[in-house]
């Protein structure tokens, strides 16, 4: 029998569409359509039909849950009264929706996008140094001279040796660990040294450690119980070390507890989040939710304002928008195309976080340079290149041993680039929220360092001539990877470009929508040899060459020739910011000439819709694209 919920049912994504408020549907269908979070947490009402009249009632599951929460709250208050503990800091609660709640992983050798992502940004874990607070959209400082112990990292001081071969950190005393799974005391030198040595291990796939050059990863020594020393290769001091090891970089290395790892074992340790931040994670369930509780009397001397935060897994933008519109969620990122309407409807506001990034296609498979001091044999294996060259079926991949082939592949890549209509993408797909960009280095055309030579004309006729000159007048077959987990605007733009390649160049494009995390290992083992959408939000002077030169870990699918890598990697130790910027401009000259990155647009920083319940929020800007600094949130 159809049941009209009359406002009790929230929109929820369902393959090709959504079910709006008030939709009449069988009860079973409503159960299936609801997001898992709503099934377990929301006060949904369902309509019964008695005597032809609608009557509202609570679900039994919801009633039992309310009763359980009420009893638990009473018990908690009684225990707090008996123990003298006044409970968590702050007052009130909020819900934050994110695209992914990854599995809880704390071992620094492994993928730390949980602890170094949600955990770091939502103040469960902390880093050895902390960037000064810089509100978006301005980027945080890159150079170590812009960092200070006053910003409240784990280290209370640090000293760089005169010969630049070590940094000695003094650890703040009396920083307590969250009491999850036991009582773990306070942070000491063993914790810090173990964290970094695990992250820097040869078998580590730590996301934050991948950003740091091998010269800086000779290991940490324990000097005394509250002092550690980071060892650095002679001539290898990186002036951006504090950015790379701090809270504002991508998946920064967070300090974790060694004793808990030893006592709990790898399996239980992975399921027991133990940090030092202003929020303690009481539960962490992958692909579901994270429950955070504000820590009272935090070691920094300032507590969070909001008592509890629920972070929910909502991959689909339509679901997040629906949850915002009904007040089930207070903060969520939304696409540029829909955020204005959603914020206007809820009388909220938009909060921007992050550094704008170029979006385009990495022309994967062009692994031209193998020289790799950090690889086991001194050479980087490149199976994706070997397969492409032996088959001859990858027209965009050039073979440096064959000059004619290199020129043919270069013209193919330029033909692809000249078919991209950036202005149309920005106006018709991104609703104006984007900018034209032509530089992999994230340099906009209005930047003083930008060169006219980097501009790419939108010229389909010239593109067809280039393709004909390359020997492909009728096009060819090509696979294109557009990860399903990327922002909707990026995916839509990439699909539009693929359609243009089909129509204008006769290229038969097959799109693979495998999520990024599932196929990312191919960028590590260098088997990826098809173009894929990707972009990095570089800050001027970054050592960006790490991602386009040989190494044993993740790169973006191609490597520049050796001379270019030698120049680009100088940035890892160059002390002069202007020299580092100059090096990157030279690298961009090369990337444009070879067209190893086919740009589509510069994406805006991530846009978060903030609900009307929130009075103020002052996040910091960072390379990560998650809501951060929740301790600054106040409620109306």
What does this entry look like structurally?
With 636 residues, the protein is α+β, with helices and mostly antiparallel strands. The chain is 29% helix and 17% strand. The chain contains 18 helices and 24 strands. A 7-stranded mixed beta sheet has the order 12-13-14-7-15-22-16, with helices on one face. Strands 8-9-11-10 form a 4-stranded antiparallel beta sheet, with helices on one face. Helix 11 runs antiparallel to helix 13. The model is unreliable at 1-85 (pLDDT under 50).
Secondary structure: elements and pairs:
Elements: E1 3-4, E2 13-14, E3 17-18, E4 24-25, H1 27-33, H2 36-41, E5 45-50, E6 53-58, H3 60-83, E7 93-98, H4 114-121, E8 155-160, E9 166-171, H5 189-199, E10 220-224, E11 227-231, H6 241-244, H7 258-270, E12 279-285, E13 289-294, E14 308-313, H8 317-325, E15 331-333, H9 336-346, E16 349-353, E17 357-362, H10 383-391, H11 403-418, H12 422-428, H13 460-469, E18 477-481, H14 488-505, E19 508-512, H15 516-519, H16 521-524, E20 532-534, H17 562-569, H18 577-594, E21 597-603, E22 606-610, E23 614-616, E24 634-635
Parallel strand pairs: 7-14, 7-15, 18-19
Antiparallel strand pairs: 1-4, 2-3, 5-6, 8-9, 9-11, 10-11, 12-13, 13-14, 15-22, 16-22, 17-20, 17-21, 23-24
